[in-house]
Amino acid sequence: MKKTDFIYKTIQLVLYIVLTACCLGILLLDERVYHLVASDPSFRILGVLLWLALGFSFVFIYGAAYMAYFLNGLVPLTPAPLLGVQGALRVFGSMRFTLLPLCVAGIISCLVRKFAIR
């Protein structure tokens, strides 16, 4: 990577973080916007759907690792690029024991943030 590419990527990341902080500040600090979002039922439904999607993403990540463990032996070795695919599946599948407690912790943290912290 060239030095100029790194500088441009860093500037983009900083601008993204600043823009996100400004939007979050407007949402949380402006009382009218906060009550508009909190009182609208469609925003509440959207929030519930986002929490469900986040919880299911942890289940999907663990399920994909578990399937990669079982499917890495089914990939043929004859073309060279497929050897890399098999290696990638083997590495991702070998992380299944590591991903299980992480995904369970992620689901628990989603539930705690949703129901316990109000």
Outline of the structure:
The chain is mainly alpha-helical. The chain contains five helices and no strands.
What does this structure look like?
With about 120 residues, the protein is mainly alpha-helical. The chain folds into two domains: about 40 residues; about 80 residues, no CATH class. Helix content is about 85%, strand content about 0%. The protein is built from five helices and no strands. Helix 3 crosses helix 4 and helix 3 packs antiparallel against helix 5. The radius of gyration is 21 Å and the shape is flat. The N and C termini lie far apart (about 45 Å). The relative contact order is 0.08. The mean pLDDT is about 85.
Helix-strand topology string: HHHHH
Rounded average pLDDT: 83
In total, how many beta strands? 0
Radius of gyration: 21 Å
Structural class: mainly alpha
Give the helix proportion (percent range): over 70%
The largest sheet, given as strand count, sense and whether it forms a barrel, is:
none
Number of helices: 5
Q: Rough shape?
A: flat
Content of β-strand: under 5%
Measured between the Cα atoms of the first and last residue, the distance is: 45 Å
Provide the number of structural domains.
Answer: 2
Low-confidence region ranges: none
